[in-house]
């Protein structure tokens, strides 16, 4: 977010595509990445492999895709490679909360942090899309606050 810690700017098209993705995935969580580059922002939908993880090992992954997400690691690597090749940055990572409010849960925070406590994707924001009955109720964004060593809610401007 390049120093703008209190505002996440998105195009109307990106916000609408996130909302569409969340509604299409309902009642499961969707997930994806927004890349920022010279030509503008690009949204990359990702596959939520949480159901597969849950089926393979329900003890380690007690939640299924209705209440959790796990971005396919192969897709993450492909997106990181694409971003590196094109000189883009990861602007935001998003996921939905079906039938729940938009908040940054303890599990969301844990996924966003490296084992040593710093954010995995630097200045990237984390967007949570609340969806009830295939209707987006709201979107909230959260960004790392180094002074607080925590994620704080930031405003979203979609224009």
**Main β sheet profile:** 7 strands, mixed
**Total helix count?**
4
Q: Structural class of the secondary structure composition?
A: alpha/beta
Classify the oligomer: single chain
Name the CATH superfamily assignment.
Cytidine Deaminase, domain 2
Q: Please indicate the count of domains.
A: 1
For the record, give the distance between the C-alpha atoms at the N and C termini, rounded to a whole number: 17 Å
Compressed to H and E, one letter per element, the order equals EHEEHHEHEEE
- β-sheet strand percentage: 35-45%
CATH class placement: Alpha Beta
Shape: globular
Low-confidence stretches: none
Question: Could you say what the CATH architecture is?
Answer: 3-Layer(aba) Sandwich
Q: How large, in whole angstroms, is the Cα Rg?
A: 15 Å
Helix content: 25-40%
Mean model confidence by pLDDT: 94
CATH topology assignment: Cytidine Deaminase, domain 2
Physical arrangement of strands within the biggest beta sheet: 1-7-6-5-4-2-3
Number of strands: 7
